[in-house]
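Hi V.,

You were right to ask for the full record rather than a summary. Here it is.
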Amino acid sequence: MSGRDQASPVDVSNLRSLLINNATLADISRVYNLPTRLRVRPAQAVTLRASLSIQADVLESYMGGLYLDQDLPAVEPWLTALFASYATEAYNVGASNMKHN
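Predicted structure:
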């Protein structure tokens, strides 16, 4: 957003929803190959590793562990860089949707 763009509370809420939904978090989880690192029983492996919600949960757990281990000042630059492109894309999708309504 540029300095003159003003997002309403609804816009900000929609942007937040797009950033933290299971699809986005699962995508990031797969980029880091986190689902393949799950230690599960062989009979459960395929189902758990293919589950969007499990992939998202694994990323959330990873981020939480980093936060607890290193604290926010150490983790924040990584999180900011990690979500920057997703935030831009979510904002553009939201702006495009508003133009069509």
